[in-house]
Design goal:
Blueprint lengths: L4 E5 L4 H12 L3 E6 L10 E5 L5 H14 L2 E6 L14 H29 L2 E6 L11 H21 L4 E8 L15 H8 L10 H12 L10 E4 L11
Parallel strand pairs: 1-2, 1-4, 2-3, 4-5, 5-6, 6-7
Length: 241
């Protein structure tokens, strides 16, 4: 493994897999933590299978990984949606997404924090969503994804003097398996969605990965506590996706 290692959650597919590839190309070692093993074949990549919605299992896996590797990067990308109108949202939905979107990054960062502080270098990137601004049928999703902004802003204040940054990337409509949970795969559906986006197209995983790479770069230590919407302009207007 290289001297600089990042944990990437949800690295088995979609945005997470793209983030893994971009970090590997930039010289990072990568540990993908996901329910499924990543298909990326690279000597600087290690795959750990874990249910990130299980806080105890996530903590145990994180501590084991941080004992094996000098982890100085955390990219929490794993997510789930659980769409439902308000009348149908359950407390279990909220609790499950709180565990995945907020508790998981907390225990991951706590596991890596001693090494980050020892090296006086760390990069924390939380992948939120444009839906954090509000979107119909996303009560649990929007609430927990918006919580990531509070985590990053607080950690930026606490960790800045240790050389550790914390930032948020908030994607808009990006073609992934989760995207297709609500948008059919037919070309007409994709075109209809693209027509509602100011830039006239849907996003791709690489669009998000490049933003993550910016925040993860050792050269960008003067940027912390910030949120970057990678959304084609949908955070400025409105969209029904």
């Amino acid at each position: 493994m290289p001297e600089r290692v990042a944990i990437v959650t949800g690295g088995s597919a979609g945005i997470g897999a793209s983030i893994c590839r971009h970090l590997l190309d930039a010289g990072w070692g990568v540990v993908s933590m996901s329910r499924r093993a990543t298909e990326i074949d690279h000597p600087a990549l290690c795959s750990v299978e874990v249910d990130l919605g299980d806080v105890a299992a996530t903590r145990a896996a994180a501590l084991e990984v941080c004992a094996r590797f000098p982890v100085t990067g955390i990219v929490h990308n794993a997510g789930a949606m659980r769409p439902a109108l308000l009348a149908d949202v359950t407390v279990e939905d909220l609790e499950a997404l709180t565990a995945l979107h907020l508790s998981a990054p907390l225990v991951l960062v706590q596991a890596a924090l001693p090494e980050m502080r020892r090296r006086r270098f760390g990069r924390i990137v939380l992948v939120s969503s444009r839906a954090a601004l509000g979107l119909a049928t996303r009560t649990a999703y929007s609430a927990t994804k918006s919580g990531m902004f509070g985590l990053a802003r607080t950690w930026a204040l606490e960790l800045g003097r240790d050389g550790i940054t914390a930032n948020v990337v908030a994607p808009g409509p990006v073609v992934t398996d989760m995207f297709h949970e609500v948008i059919p795969r037919e070309q007409a559906a994709l075109e209809a969605t693209a027509a509602k986006i100011p830039v006239g197209r849907v996003g791709l995983p690489d669009d998000v990965a490049r933003a993550v790479l910016f925040f993860a770069s050792p050269d960008n230590g003067f940027v912390t506590g910030q949120s970057l919407y990678v959304c084609g302009g949908t955070s400025v207007g409105s969209i029904t996706y």
